[in-house]
Amino acid sequence: MADKAVLVTGASGFIASHVVQQLLESGQRVHGTVRSTKNEGKINHLLDMQTRWPGQLTLFEADLLVPGSFDAAMQGCSVVYHLASPFFIENKIRDGQKDVVEPALSGTKHVLDAVGKCDTVELVVLTSSVVAIFGDNADVLQMKNATLSTEYFNTTSTVSHNAYSYSKVLAEKEAWRYHDAQPAPPRWKLVTINPGMVLGPSLSPTSESGSLSLMHQLLRGELFLGVPDLWFSIADVREVATAHLQAASNPDAHGRYIIAHKQTYGFVELARILRSLTKSSRIPKNTLPHLVVSLSGPFIGLSRKWLSLNQGIKFNLDNGPSLSELGTVYRPLEETLADHLESWKAQQSSR
């Protein structure tokens, strides 16, 4: 595969930008798709990479909703890293079908249709999510040993309840359907990377990642009264990116990989770490009572059903395969948050 290029879809995104950078650092030739090559504000960091690694990065325009959109970019590529997909936190989604389900599902189909026509592709690494495995935190309590593992798929999310999670499970299942429909022996292999909430330094100043939006609210002091009793599976963006590369370089990599710490972290723990780093009294150190959040939730787009299935529920994750097969090394949460904060401050000062 070494002499062929690799394709990264959605190359300007939060995780994808790190994948592109790590690929370039490793000496690979990269084709990257973006929605517009004219939107320099959105792709300026990629243009900088083209300068730093002359001749190694070529950008193509592609649209998740347009059939045939990825055909040209994929020519001559051996590995396809499919990262392009919309990500919003639940209370920011206005139309689940239009905002997240259609782009995620159509994009996966259009990328894999192109793979089917491109004989050079040997591997697809799909960026899925832990939410393709579970919908609400309460779901994990029904799993073996109340531990999240890749033997499960999310069965509780719908277009009206956890629409983003629903889009991720539909897209991943569709990818497996495409893979399994190949005549034997299959020409291309599929590996999925299922990260938790992804934090850490951003290379893209205009990233629309939902996890970054949540942290912006915290850092801007918008949650100064306190945070809900919510628990998150967390991964550093650099570890998630490296896992993609490891999935491609390890011939024994197969199936699905949870990329996240082995336990969930409380929202209040994130807040307290950031408060200690910033010395800002606008960042809270307390958890709001469940009743207060349940009563106010509907006003900020969080249904009482959603809150009842997520507030106060923590769980463990089986990240063992990421350690043993991908060699993932999870850095301390404090380091991820410190680097996230420095990146955030740099972006604020440049605006």
Automatic annotation (TrEMBL):
Q: Which Gene3D superfamilies does the annotation name?
A: NAD(P)-binding Rossmann-like Domain (3.40.50.720)
Q: Which InterPro entries match?
A: Epimerase_deHydtase, NAD(P)-bd_dom_sf, NAD(P)_dehydrat-like
Spans through the membrane: none
The record, for Pfam families, names: Epimerase (PF01370)
- Could you tell me the superkingdom of the organism this chain comes from? Eukaryota
Which SUPFAM superfamilies does the entry mention?
NAD(P)-binding Rossmann-fold domains
Which residue numbers delimit the NAD-dependent epimerase/dehydratase domain?
Answer: 6-254
- Name the record gives this protein: NAD-dependent epimerase/dehydratase domain-containing protein
> What organism is recorded for this protein?
Aspergillus pseudoustus
